[in-house]
Design a protein that fits this description.
The structure holds 2 protein chains of 2 kinds. By secondary structure, chain A is α/β, with parallel strands linked by helices. Chain A has 11 helices and 11 strands. Helix content of chain A is 37%, strand content 19%. In chain A, helix 8 packs across helix 9. The chains are: A alpha/beta, B alpha/beta. Chains A and B meet through helix 2, strand 4, strand 6, helix 4 and helix 5 of A and strand 4, helix 3, strand 6, helix 4 and strand 7 of B.
Chain lengths: 289, 342
């Protein structure tokens, strides 16, 4: 059995754990056709993945991964040609990556994962992108709406205020520079919560060009040699609730619609510019090919 | 410190990082501590391999302004262009630098595409006071503080499929002003010696000021004279004479606007007459790097400067530069041309 490892990367709340939960459900049920298929539970402990998948099936939001060193999960899978592999993925906290950008430090355990990986699955919450809005534009829009502009306390610069695309470009640049200097250049970009933005009618490539143009230019320029693909992924199909913040009204109705589907895998949607499926293993398979 | 391998199933506990139980218990008393991957009484069962060790975090490269040594390494390593941005205090040097990164955050600029930057933090800091995130009600730019010396911003671009590295120098305006008093002050201006292009910024807002306008002209000429007499100009460099804060001129009364435009044209003519032999080429530009209103789009004219820097062989038509295409530029930013005077 081949040992394979990829890194799932993303800032806090980018959907990393939800992706893992849905992936585990998808491969273990086998209800949908997938590029990689489940092989066995042998030589592993599926406690963490089973707990995540159970929450996912119940329509509950995942508990945020807090410690930087996170949790290592492994899956025994089979590829299209029948070859067996043990896929290892770290469920690391988004703060680990945020600190790399803001504090310019990397937890050594995270560094170990990165340099031992064959590829990078980069999750970006498609409906939570911080744009580089200019003061003049916001003031003009406020005036156009007939609102008054209140005097506000000026906010000094902090790295966390940087637009999402700047943070992402910098993170990818850091991966390619010493001391990290990661050995891989395959990158699968996952635009998570795709269900929130797909009504705008753009494909993932166009979304990247319009909402994250600096990132798109960086990748297109091939400055760091990334070989990349982009996917729009809805791992949940909609919003999930918390135990202590139960949905009511329309939100509850939508969640119940998802729960009413005969097979939970039907909540999953994976969109590329050429196809739509529920195959969450496809980006992973491409990263390892 | 000896490495210890320990994890906790309590998500609030950071024992793996700190070595301390969040509840203050000793490890043998805590029911959540995982030993050999097993919790005595895990609140949330998690399969955890014993992976965490207490080790020092790895320091990553900063993304601040580059020091001379780093800038030199870039210049040696690839096709590159050094741009020296010269001007008195508050002439708009930092605004111009900030506008460049912001431009690429909207998308490719004509046939130029962003490739990478080693100074993204520095660009972001320069941009901050023009961003809504600053919660300001009007844009402002921090000026480079006296005594901070020279630093460099880095932009790697792709131009017609060819990579090019731009290094933009940033030095306090006071330093440049002092070469007019004593050209020997220019001796440490490495960025001028190495520059492929030099920009001399002319503060458009001050040109509108009846009292200040004559000193604006004189400062421009004297700074250039100081650089020439300080023997830091190579003779093969290109000079851009850049009228900044065009948005302020646009909103002035017609008479003031026209006078400021004439003043600028006069400065360009004087520079050409006095320094025509000193530079390979002298071209005028008009920009509004960080307009206070939407009368002009953000970074208006900065794209023309980018072209000037990356296309040293192809002399830009001076007429094109003097009559910037507001309709085209505004259209790209989704703003209608109001047809006001240029």
């Amino acid at each position: 059995m081949k040992e394979r490892s990829i890194t799932i990367c993303g800032f806090p709340e980018s959907g990393k754990t939800s992706y893992l939960a849905a992936l585990w459900h998808l491969v273990t049920t086998g209800a949908e056709q997938t590029t990689l298929t489940f092989e066995s539970l042998r030589n592993g402990d599926a406690t963490h993945l089973n707990a995540l998948a159970a929450r996912w099936r119940n329509g509950l939001r995942q508990v945020r991964t807090k410690t930087p060193s996170g949790t290592l999960v492994s899956m025994n899978l089979k590829d299209a040609s029948g070859d067996l592999m043990r896929l290892t993925l770290p469920d690391l906290s988004g703060e680990s990556y945020r600190d790399m950008f803001e504090v310019r430090e990397c937890d050594p355990t995270v560094a170990d994962f990165l340099v031992g990986s064959q590829g990078l699955l980069l999750l970006i919450h498609a409906d939570n992108i911080k744009q580089p809005h200019m003061v003049t534009t916001v003031v003009a829009q406020t005036r156009a709406l007939g609102s008054t502009i209140a005097e506000r306390q000026e906010v000094p610069w902090e790295a966390r205020l940087a637009p999402t695309q700047v943070q992402l470009v910098e993170l990818l640049q850091l991966f390619c520079l010493p001391p990290l200097n990661v050995p891989f250049r395959r990158l699968a970009i996952v635009l998570s919560a795709w269900d929130k933005v797909e009504v705008e009618g753009r494909g993932p490539q166009q979304f990247l060009a319009e909402r994250l143009p600096l990132l798109k230019q960086y990748l297109n320029s091939n400055a760091d040699g990334w070989e990349w693909k982009v996917y729009g992924v809805s791992a949940q199909g909609g919003d999930y609730e918390k135990e202590d913040e139960r949905f009511t009204g329309a939100q509850l109705e939508k969640l119940n619609e998802l729960k009413a589907l005969d097979e939970p895998s039907m909540r999953i949607k994976v969109v590329s510019d050429t196809s739509t499926s529920s195959d969450l293993t496809e980006p992973i398979s491409w990263l390892m090919s | 410190m000896d490495a210890i391998e320990i994890q906790c199933s309590n998500l609030e506990c950071r024992v793996a990082e700190t070595g301390k139980c969040v509840e203050g218990l000793s490890f043998d008393k805590c029911p959540h501590i995982l030993r050999d991957g097993t919790a005595q009484g895990a609140a949330i069962a998690e399969k955890v391999e014993p992976i965490a060790q207490i080790r020092a975090n790895i320091q990553l490269p900063k993304a601040e302004r580059l020091e001379l040594a780093d800038a030199s390494a870039i210049l040696r390593s690839a096709r590159s262009s050094m741009v020296a941005i010269v001007g008195p205090t508050l002439s708009g040097k930092t605004s111009l630098i900030a506008s460049l990164c912001n431009l690429f955050q909207q998308g490719p600029v004509d046939d130029l595409q962003f490739a990478r930057s080693r100074t993204l933090f520095a660009f972001e800091q320069a941009c901050h006071h023009a961003r809504a995130a600053s919660r300001r009600n009007s844009p402002q730019t921090e000026h480079t503080h006296r005594g901070s010396g020279v630093g460099f911003y880095h932009l790697a671009l792709v131009h017609n499929s060819s990579p090019i590295q731009l290094l933009l120098s940033d030095r306090p305006g006071e330093d440049y002003r002092e070469v007019a008093d004593d050209p020997n002050n220019a001796s440490s201006f490495v960025e001028i010696r190495r520059a492929d292009s030099i920009l001399i910024l002319v503060n458009g807002e001050l040109l509108l000021d009846l009292t200040a306008r004559h000193n604006v002209r004189q400062d421009t000429l004297m700074i250039l004279q100081g650089l020439k007499d300080g023997d830091v100009l190579s003779g093969s460099q290109r000079l851009a004479v850049v009228l900044t804060k065009l948005d302020v001129i646009r909103t002035a009364l017609t008479a003031d606007h026209d006078r400021a435009q004439r003043d600028f044209d006069g400065i360009v003519n004087l520079v050409r007459a006095r320094f025509g032999e000193t530079f390979k080429e002298i071209l005028p530009f008009k920009i509004a790097a960080s307009p206070a209103t939407e009368i002009l789009p953000y970074a208006f004219g900065s794209n023309e400067l980018l072209k000037f820097w990356v296309e040293p062989q192809a002399a830009t038509d001076p007429k094109l530069l003097q009559n910037i295409h507001p309709a085209r530029a505004m259209g790209r930013f989704g703003i209608a041309d109001d047809g006001s005077h240029s």
